[in-house]
Amino acid sequence: MPKAPKANKAAEPVPPPPSKPRQCHYYVARKRRYCSLPAKLTNKYCGEHIAEQQKDQTEEDMKRVPCPYDPSHTVYEKDLEYHMQARCNSRPRPPDVYFSLNVNCTVPLSKEELEFQKTIFSHKQQHAQPWLARVQLSELPKTELEDLITKVRRVFDEQVPSIVSQILTEPTVESKKPTLTNTKHLDQNSSLLGHMRQMGMLKDKSACFIEFGAGKGELSGYLKRALGEVDGEATYVLIDRKTVRFKYDNALLGMQQTHKSTVERCSIDIKDLDLSKVPALTRASGEKKKVVALSKHLCGSATDITLKCLMNYDEAQKAAGQTQPIDGIIIALCCHQICRYEMYPHTAYLDALGLSKTDFERIAKMSSWATCSKRQNEDQDEHGGNLGEEADADETAGHYSGLDHKERETIGYQCKRVLDAGRMKYLEQHGFRAHLVYYVDPATSLENCALIAVPAEQK
């Protein structure tokens, strides 16, 4: 009869190595003791077991740790110091000449947020900020929600002018349409450039065209085609806080070997941008170039700090003696639900209407009702705003507001336009004629409203 196999004994714990000098650290499990051969003073193991030391070193060398500047990537621990000094794209760099911390914020930021800003080395670290308003409309008493909706309807009727739908095209952009299968972005770019031409923003080819939230610079690429410049007269400034593929930068320079356009890319948060100090805006003579500002889908507060940035520049240049520093502004608006009170440019408008900071935050949140049930069909790269609770709530059979889908959608659009009306009035205060226009069909983009402004004295 065969013997039953012996039960495996539990592995005995390995004791620490003796503390005597030159002790080899190799544990001989069979003898239940450490190797008795001496090791060199500089080694942990004797000559017989030196391979174990090499194995330990290999494992140590292969250990990866998160980069302190940008935890979204890791690096070998042994290379961490050099990576942080010379290789990491998110490492702190000397501030640019046009950097001025929070210069375009309307209301001073909290001490907590200012402290947090000191630890930011990458735009990827700007999420989950605890001081941002976490508005939960579903938790409001129904009477408060109804009062807020009544306020929105009243302000909309009083302040928001009628908005026309005007879908234009730019021939130089339309010529590319046969080569594309998805023309959604092209249609938007074509109409925006068509409105720029209609408003006279393309007349001066020597102007400085500044694209805010530029990304790869696609809109500026189409703009260059629309301008039809021959001798590199135009200047292009591309502003974005993210580091992206500079896909259109070379195209903007032009094909000429001798007369190339001036192209400058500013990797900076718009809230910190002092436009008057961007080198590309100044001619060799010291005179400032005329500015035309453009953007396609500048999300939430990015639109507000852009307007503040432009008006700060406009005021500074007029004070310095320049007449009409800005020839035009066109911004395709979106993602009002991530607007912030501290960055809204016309808080006096809100005060005059009896809208508090809390009201503003709730109205911004409620603006997502306009698109939350449809956004899954939109391009998430184009609209970065998080809908959160509202998208989830819209899937339920009964909505906490007691309104049906069509009513909520109408209220959502009214919230957007109430905020946009304040932006218009802010520009008008600074001597601009401003209006809103639906520049593409909703089937092309749910966020189909653009803000357009030119100097009031311009005919």
UniProtKB/TrEMBL annotation:
<feature type="compositionally biased region" description="Low complexity">
    <location>
        <begin position="1"/>
        <end position="12"/>
    </location>
</feature>
<feature type="region of interest" description="Disordered">
    <location>
        <begin position="1"/>
        <end position="22"/>
    </location>
</feature>
<dbReference type="GO" id="GO:0030488">
    <property type="term" value="P:tRNA methylation"/>
</dbReference>
<feature type="compositionally biased region" description="Basic and acidic residues">
    <location>
        <begin position="375"/>
        <end position="384"/>
    </location>
</feature>
<feature type="region of interest" description="Disordered">
    <location>
        <begin position="374"/>
        <end position="396"/>
    </location>
</feature>
<comment type="similarity">
    <text>Belongs to the methyltransferase TRM13 family.</text>
</comment>
<comment type="function">
    <text>tRNA methylase which 2'-O-methylates cytidine(4) in tRNA(Pro) and tRNA(Gly)(GCC), and adenosine(4) in tRNA(His).</text>
</comment>
<dbReference type="Pfam" id="PF05253">
    <property type="entry name" value="zf-U11-48K"/>
</dbReference>
<keyword id="KW-0479">Metal-binding</keyword>
<dbReference type="GO" id="GO:0106050">
    <property type="term" value="F:tRNA 2'-O-methyltransferase activity"/>
</dbReference>
<dbReference type="GO" id="GO:0008270">
    <property type="term" value="F:zinc ion binding"/>
</dbReference>
<dbReference type="Pfam" id="PF11722">
    <property type="entry name" value="zf-TRM13_CCCH"/>
</dbReference>
<dbReference type="InterPro" id="IPR007871">
    <property type="entry name" value="Methyltransferase_TRM13"/>
</dbReference>
<keyword id="KW-0863">Zinc-finger</keyword>
<keyword id="KW-0489">Methyltransferase</keyword>
<keyword id="KW-0808">Transferase</keyword>
<keyword id="KW-0819">tRNA processing</keyword>
<dbReference type="InterPro" id="IPR022776">
    <property type="entry name" value="TRM13/UPF0224_CHHC_Znf_dom"/>
</dbReference>
<dbReference type="InterPro" id="IPR021721">
    <property type="entry name" value="Znf_CCCH-type_TRM13"/>
</dbReference>
<keyword id="KW-0862">Zinc</keyword>
<dbReference type="InterPro" id="IPR039044">
    <property type="entry name" value="Trm13"/>
</dbReference>
<feature type="domain" description="CHHC U11-48K-type">
    <location>
        <begin position="64"/>
        <end position="91"/>
    </location>
</feature>
<dbReference type="Pfam" id="PF05206">
    <property type="entry name" value="TRM13"/>
</dbReference>
<keyword id="KW-0949">S-adenosyl-L-methionine</keyword>
<protein>
    <recommendedName>
        <fullName>tRNA:m(4)X modification enzyme TRM13</fullName>
        <ecNumber>2.1.1.225</ecNumber>
    </recommendedName>
</protein>
